[in-house]
Design brief:
- 31% of the residues lie in helices and 16% in strands.
- By secondary structure, the protein is an alpha/beta fold.
- It has a single domain (13-250), classed as Alpha-Beta Barrel (TIM Barrel).
- The protein has a six-stranded mixed β-sheet with strand order 1-2-3-4-5-6, covered by helices on one side. A three-stranded parallel β-sheet has the order 7-8-9.
- The protein is globular.
């Protein structure tokens, strides 16, 4: 696969910071977040609001970091052996992701890549953990909804959002090729959404112990309201639950 040749070139990496993984099966581990910019989707969750990283998707900002910056943050934090590669949609940047797999292999770093499943990447070294959060029908923008920067949602935006949504073939290839995965859908508290989450799980033959249900909500206030519902539902149905503790801790602050 393609690689990054120039380590001083500015990449589509918008945020690079040290934090603690607060979602999914690697919860609680210190990590380095590498946030890419650009996404094929345009998620709108009704009362749950727009994509919580809308500055990488609906109104994408430009990247500012180089590969050398990524090396430096690991040199400065030699105790950290994890990477949270998130977005936006990191799989839109195959050369960058591939280069990171080489770096991770050299340094013994576990990469968790957050993906909605739009694209399959056959990286030179398989990725340690695919964190799969497919987007269901409750993510489709509603005509006339106003985006965080004042754009009106139109048919074009809806078409763009649905173009790679639930790309089953690419998702299957992704789960089969890389080392491990977990399924981390966001649940909005409705039966309708839960049916879609479960139908996807069954279709893709994902075991319940690899399923982590995450509450919808992009602010501390909205999230806390969802927690008891998710606790009860997971206890009843046998899924794992994951919170979003960075939002509980820091609310809407970026870079945490
Ligand atoms: S797939 Fe993820 S990053 Fe892209 S718009 Fe949806 S929530 Fe945002």
């Amino acid at each position: 696969m393609k690689r990054i040749e120039d380590y001083d070139k500015v990449l589509p990496v918008l945020e690079l910071y040290r934090c603690v993984q607060s979602e999914g099966s690697r919860f609680g581990r210190p990590t380095i977040a590498v946030r890419t910019t650009g996404c094929t989707h345009r998620c709108f969750f009704g009362e749950g609001g727009w994509c919580d990283s809308w500055y990488t998707s609906i109104h994408p900002e430009k990247g500012t970091f180089t590969f050398n910056d990524i090396i430096k943050i690991y040199d400065d934090n030699p105790h950290i052996k994890e990477m949270m590669l998130t977005g936006g949609s990191p799989t839109m940047h195959p050369a960058l992701v591939n280069e990171l797999t080489h770096f991770a292999n050299e340094r013994d770093i576990i990469i968790t890549i957050e993906t909605e499943g739009s694209h399959f990447l056959d990286t030179d070294y398989p990725i340690s953990l695919i964190s799969l959060s497919p987007k269901f029908s409750n993510s489709i923008p509603v005509l006339g909804a106003i985006t965080p920067q004042g754009k009106v949602a139109d048919e074009r935006m809806i078409k763009q959002h649905n173009k790679f949504r639930l790309n089953y073939e690419k998702i299957r290839q992704t789960l089969d090729y890389h080392k491990d995965y977990h399924y981390k859908p966001v649940w909005d508290g409705t039966d309708e959404n839960l049916k879609e989450i479960e139908a996807f799980r069954v279709k893709m033959e994902i075991p319940k112990d690899k399923t982590y249900i995450m509450p919808a909500g992009d602010t501390r206030e909205t999230l806390i309201k969802m927690y008891p519902l998710v606790f009860e539902m997971c206890a009843e149905k046998g899924y794992n639950m994951t919170g979003r503790d960075h939002i509980i801790a820091f609310d809407t602050e970026r870079g945490v």
